[in-house]
Amino acid sequence: MSEHKQVFKTNKEKEDYFNLKFIPFLSQLYNYAFYLTKDEDDSNDLVQDTFIKAFRFIENFQEGTNEKAWLFKIMKNGFINDYRKKNSKPVHFSFDTIYESGDNDNDDELNNVADNNYLQTTDAYKGLIGDEVTKALDALQHDYRQIILLADIEEFSYEELSEILEIPIGTVRSRLFRARNLLKDKLKTYGKNLGYKEKR
Amino acid sequence: MNTVTCNEIKEQLMFYLDNELNENTKSQLITHLRNCCDCMDFLYKEKQMKDKICDKLKDSYVCECDTSKLEKCIKDKIKEIIKGKF
């Protein structure tokens, strides 16, 4: 497989490329950071760390790869690393590993921390949003919630989701299928008319 | 001859709405939909459901906050990295 890594003649060229290709995704990165951390300051830190890592390793970015997906993957892994550090666990992740594919045991860790963050903030959100879809989404396990957000809000393709979440594309399909069906089941349970009615 | 069953079609509709079907499967699905009101109705409801969920999710997930300060901060740090490194 051929790799086309970035080559920059000057720092200015590198900086301009970064500002043009990556900075435009800042708002979307912030949304994802807030989804993960549920804290404004932590979100700001996570976004900054993500962009700085991206800049430091920009030569590894392969032309033709989706910039947004690359940033989301860096952020997801950075979030897991921060969580490990805060919990005094040894850090095994290195930036280079984000190029490796296949199932990732980081997922379980991400599930735990994101679910905990969700549990801590659910009450506050209930009052603010309080609709059936949000309740139904809150009730989903993190990996189901996350894949729905990334697919339906961020509009990543299955291939990009596979890259970000470091799972095979078949798992993307089955996880998304299961997540949406679970969401529909929960909405049916809430018994609200959202355009989806059971046949009688 | 169209041998695809309604259940098989319904399982594929989500992937069709996501535009993630290969051309062959997509073609089979469209042919079936043209001749099956039940599946067409199911597709319509799936689409409606997906759109409503997306709208609601956007309300709660998407932050309209001003990220210009954060952007400036990141750009400043990038400049610092460049100065320090080179």
Secondary structure elements and their pairing?
The complex is a heterodimer of chains A (about 200) and B (about 90).
Chain A: H1 11-21, H2 26-37, H3 40-56, H4 67-86, H5 106-128, H6 132-138, H7 142-153, H8 158-165, H9 169-190
Helix pairs in contact in A: 2-3, 2-4, 3-4, 4-5, 4-8, 6-9, 7-9, 8-9
Chain B: H1 6-17, H2 23-34, H3 37-61, H4 68-85
Helix pairs in contact in B: 1-2, 1-3
Describe the structure in your own words:
The complex is a heterodimer of chains A (200) and B (86). By secondary structure, chain A is mainly alpha-helical. Chain A is built from nine helices and no strands. Chain A has helices at 11-21, 26-37, 40-56, 67-86, 106-128, 132-138, 142-153, 158-165, 169-190. Chain A is globular, with a radius of gyration of 18 Å. The relative contact order of chain A is 0.10. Mean pLDDT of chain A is 77; it is low at 89-105, 118-130 and 194-200. In chain B, 78% of the residues lie in helices and 0% in strands. Chain B is built from four helices and no strands. In chain B, helix 1 (6-17) crosses helix 2 (23-34). Chains A and B meet through helix 1, helix 2, helix 3, helix 6 and helix 7 of A and helix 1, helix 3 and helix 4 of B.
